[in-house]
Amino acid sequence: MKNARPFQTILSTDALNKIEQYDISFVFDKLCFDGKITAVEIPELETEFKKFIILVALNIQPIAMISPQVDEVWHQFILFTAQYRKFCLETVGFFIGHTPDTPKTPIPVEAGENFREAYKANFGDIPQIWYKGMDQESLKYYAQSHLIGRPPKLWSGWAGPEEL
Q1: Percent of the chain at pLDDT above 90?
Q2: In terms of pTM, does the model score above 0.70?
Q3: Rounded Cα gap, residues 136 and 133, in angstroms
Q4: CA pair distance 98, 49, nearest whole angstrom
Q5: Is 138 in a helix, a strand, or coil?
Q6: How far apart are CA 3 and CA 128, in angstroms?
Q7: In Å, how far from its chain's centre is CA 139?
Q8: If pLDDT is split at 50, 70 and 90, which confidence band does 98 have?
Q9: How many C-beta atoms lie closer than 10 Å to residue 7's C-beta?
Q10: Is omega for the bond preceding 62 within 30 degrees of 0, making it cis?
Q11: pLDDT tens per residue, range 7-31
């Protein structure tokens, strides 16, 4: 896996604070308004989304977004295009593209393992919210000690900075 080191040794306290303190409440307001999440889920989903962004800031690539719920946060945030672009530039310094796993835009198989290893190295055990909403096949896939093959459901992720 590329760059699997604790984030404290790479990101400054200032960079971490920018990500952790950035106000994205409008994203959760919309998700709640649309009935996609409950107000009770907001704190954990916000924390976990921002942890994913920290992993991107650490240049962990490719990295899979394995969570249906955290991915929903990402999708909703992207729809606020100007605010999402500003968030990316002010926190990590570049636009974070969201790549769906399709035959024309495949997410490399190692992206799932990169996510799991980097998450555990930087934050500890992966909370259950990352698995909420998965079907049984996907849960079985992610229960493997080492991911083998492609996930049963297509995932999305970040493959690295885009060149324009």
Answers
A1: 69
A2: yes
A3: 10
A4: 13
A5: helix
A6: 25
A7: 18
A8: very high
A9: 19
A10: yes
A11: 444 678 888 999 999 999 999 999 9
